[in-house]
Amino acid sequence: MRVGVIGGGQLARMMVPAAVELGIDIAVLGESAESSARIAVTAVGDHTDAATVLAFARGVDVVTFDHEHVPQQVLRALVDAGVAVRPGPEALLHAQDKLVLRERLAALGVPQPAWAGVEDAAGLGAFLGSAGGAAVVKTPRGGYDGHGVRVVREAHAADDWFADGPLLAEELVPFRRELAQLVARRPSGDVAVWPLVETVQGDGVCREVFAPAPRTSARVERVAREIAHTLAGALDVTGVLAVELFETEDERVLVNELAMRPHNSGHWTIDGAVTSQFEQHLRAVLDLPLGDPSARAPWSAMVNLLGGPADGDLDARVPRAMADQPAAKLHLYGKAPRPGRKIGHVTATGDDLDDAVYAARAAVTLLQD
Amino acid sequence: MRVGVIGGGQLARMMVPAAVELGIDIAVLGESAESSARIAVTAVGDHTDAATVLAFARGVDVVTFDHEHVPQQVLRALVDAGVAVRPGPEALLHAQDKLVLRERLAALGVPQPAWAGVEDAAGLGAFLGSAGGAAVVKTPRGGYDGHGVRVVREAHAADDWFADGPLLAEELVPFRRELAQLVARRPSGDVAVWPLVETVQGDGVCREVFAPAPRTSARVERVAREIAHTLAGALDVTGVLAVELFETEDERVLVNELAMRPHNSGHWTIDGAVTSQFEQHLRAVLDLPLGDPSARAPWSAMVNLLGGPADGDLDARVPRAMADQPAAKLHLYGKAPRPGRKIGHVTATGDDLDDAVYAARAAVTLLQD
Fold first, then answer.
1. pTM of the complete model
2. How far off is chain B from A130, nearest CA to CA, in Å?
3. Fewer Cβ atoms within 10 Å of its own Cβ: the N or the C terminal residue of chain A?
4. Topology of the domain comprising A2-85
5. CATH fold for the domain made of A114-171
6. Cβ distance B80 to B74 under 8 Å?
7. Any idea which fold B175-368 has?
8. A290 inside 8 A of chain B by CB
9. Contact across the interface for A326 and B292, Cβ inside 8 Å
10. What order do you get walking across the sheet with B167-171 strand by strand?
11. What residues does each domain of chain A span?
12. What are the Cα distances from residue A56, in Å, to A4, A38, A63, A238?
């Protein structure tokens, strides 16, 4: 069994341990030989070039992804060449284009914020009028970690973005907190759902994840599961699907965004679940039976390492973080520290959420300072 | 941080996930490009050739081992060239030469079976006379998994082995069961001790491991810990040390053998302990603070996959094993099935040992048949 991953970032890197354990050979088409997933990089090239991707795909049984940036025409060329592409182009489109997703969610009756596709300042102005004077404007494609997202309160506040086509305008949801529901699906239809988690964002980037989401009503848990289950099937997802959700003060659950690959909100599963999202993703794309997604401990806390130490010498911080928190699980992505960059995460598990959060934060602080 | 591993077997393979998680680059000197640890193989060559090993070592910060078969003169050449070799030649000698080990254990006062170095049939006859008429004869070097071990009841029963030098004769210990105490030590002296485990052997090969060792007296646990602690320090071990023990009917604990590397008796730690033996070995050889060796679940059961299916098609068995035991952790070594060969293992964890043993055995049976 040989899986090919397009993209050599930390998600591809974190698939490597799961592949090694399961006896699966893994090959990565990396951006460079120094990509985060470099141990598995067998080819270096441009993921937007069909010939490059096709040549890479010939050596593997199935192709999957580190990111959602492979263009549709390249994906279609793979399918036309008989390559098993998982998830497939149709499914991936919903993770690539936020307007397509919003339309589909509406058709499926899945709860989401009020939204509109707007083509110009007049359209945005009209939406602002209907949405209480404030909106989140997003470029439908290419955004991530807060890029391509802007809060606006004025019709002309997104004029510089209209040149590339219509924008997505969404109501500014007064949410109580953000949740994420991770699910995996194999081509035969089997679905595995992990516990619902709470995610804490800052500057548009995931900072912390608590699993399971603390103080959650049974109704919210049920709705989140139903949404994820529905979407995995309706969108014909293969592999991991992460559904980012808003929980409102009145306990409504609205779909914010989704990712069709292992996701930051699921990193806790490496140490906190019987089957990690990376193992499950590999099982799913190979159409193998899915593993048990249950939690292994009552609580898990995951804290991202963003940026790293100002002097760039992460190695020098590792010993004190390890010494201070011997039970914390350090995950370092082999990436050079740079302000705001995700270069690792720490997970702690245990019987008490506060203790786990403390341990993970303490280790990250020591890696960071 | 870059670790070089000499030998490309499954122990090197299982270091890869730990290295990837910790942000450590790992390079392997493999027997072939198709070695079990092939994803990390950066050089292929003969580990008994000093020039080959020296060339490999130049690209890494520290050298460690998949096996104990690197000759002393090669190890010394590495040290002379300024390479950090962990564990070092002095320590490794005790894992390479069973007569040296027996002498050292005697000098340290560590409990062990009655033994003697015997040079000929007369010597063996004398030992048999003192040991009740039966003995285990071992070649001091090169034995593993039952090779180089023979039970004898007659003075001439090992004549074919004397040509290569003296043999080790040991009393045939009437043991109740076999135990293993895993420990790790870093150069600064810190030691971490995992829970004592029971190991079940068949034909000289490890079959199953139960962690912690069930129905164990506090005294046996204490003695096992003390022995491992003593040996790790006295032998100046760096990395993982596995001490294989006999527990007698009268609760004596005797040292059988030891291994100075991650060991089959510790594979359960990947899924069953906060810090796996592979992560701990990497921390130790890099002189990083050791992780918490505590168990993550009340019970873990590890069952080896020996040989594999008769038709050699292991991939075809994976789906049903996964479907039948969704919570079992499969570890496949990327090795071709062959009678008796260790090609994988399965670990199950939980609140009940019998359930864990059942799950792990069921998965292995489905992979095997």
1. 0.96
2. 48
3. C
4. Rossmann fold (3.40.50)
5. Dna Ligase; domain 1 (3.30.1490)
6. no
7. D-amino Acid Aminotransferase; Chain A, domain 1 (3.30.470)
8. yes
9. yes
10. B115-118, B167-171, B135-138, B149-152
11. 2-85, 114-171, 175-368
12. 8, 15, 9, 20
